[in-house]
Write a structure and sequence with these properties.
This protein has 284 residues and is of the alpha+beta class. It contains eight helices and ten strands. A hairpin with an 8-residue loop joins strand 9 and strand 10.
Length: 284
């Protein structure tokens, strides 16, 4: 977990075992091969890589899971976020096949939250783990916690860099320690900006992509205004929202011949809107 954060000069992973990160990514890569094999109808590869993924899962949990504490590896944020994100929190059944373990998943996630809070709502992940930490929190609805983690001017945080006049991402949270001031690092929060804060997501139905897409914004904290756009093959999706005085106002521009499925905050039933420009209002 390159350049993970702590009371030390950033560099090689200090908080998280390197083999844990490598094995988790090995599993992720093999699962992508399973997905690809299914898409092209290659039954042999589907069976072969599914079996390999099960073996990796077994080895990963045997080596890194501490069942008594429901912690992976060192219990660092990256150690627990990676298996949560990749859905590796599983146990073998009587036939030796691994199945999702909801109880284990909940306990590992609780440990992850506790560690973030124990560090003053700050991350300890590096340039690899950042993405899995943020997305694991987002997938479990912890958007307010993500906002707390970054809405400040301390290290680690983007506000700290802005305070020193940085106009590009830096190599580490405090670049005064001798690192680059113009480096493609720590950009993983962009995914949260688009997927969660603005809420632009592709359809979950295969082959629809952005011909039918989702808009599910997540207002957080004292944030009052968000605006973003996304270029698709069908045109530009424009979204902006305001949240003031208990009223949430969403403006959406839907490209021609496409459909947006809109989930307003606090409302369970979505609204489907066709190409055009719309304004939707609800109580926050």
């Amino acid at each position: 977990d390159w350049y993970d954060y702590g009371d030390f000069r950033a560099g090689f992973s200090r908080n998280t075992p390197v083999p844990l990160v490598a094995t988790a990514h090995y599993y992720m890569t093999v699962m992508y091969l399973v997905k690809a094999a299914k898409m092209v109808g290659n039954d042999f590869d589907t069976r072969y890589y599914t079996s390999l993924a099960q073996d990796i899962m077994a080895a990963f949990n045997k080596c890194f899971l501490h069942k008594d504490t429901a912690q992976y590896g060192t219990g660092s944020q990256c150690s627990n976020a990676l298996p949560l994100y990749l859905q590796m929190t599983q146990n073998a059944d009587e036939q030796g096949n691994y199945r999702p373990d909801a109880d284990l998943n909940e306990k590992v996630f609780t440990n992850l939250i506790k560690d973030v809070e124990a560090h003053g709502n700050r991350l300890t992940t590096g340039d690899v783990g950042n993405r899995y930490l943020i997305q694991t929190l987002a997938r479990n609805g912890e958007h307010e916690l993500i906002y707390k983690m970054f809405n400040h001017e301390e290290a680690p945080g983007y506000g700290f860099q802005l305070k020193f006049g940085a106009t590009t991402l830096t190599e580490q949270w405090d670049p005064r320690q001798g690192s680059s001031w113009n480096h493609f690092m720590m950009g993983q929060i962009d995914e949260w900006f688009f997927n969660s804060l603005v809420g632009i997501r592709p359809s979950t139905t295969p082959k629809q992509g952005y011909q039918k897409f989702i808009i599910a914004p997540q207002p957080v904290g004292d944030l009052k205004y968000v605006k973003a756009s996304y270029e698709t093959l069908y045109g530009t999706i424009n979204v902006d929202w305001t949240c003031e005085n208990g009223t949430f106002t969403l403006n959406v521009s839907v490209p021609v011949n496409t459909t947006a499925v809109v989930y307003l905050p606090g409302e369970k039933e979505p609204k489907e809107i066709q190409s055009g420009t719309y304004q939707l209002v609800c109580a926050k």
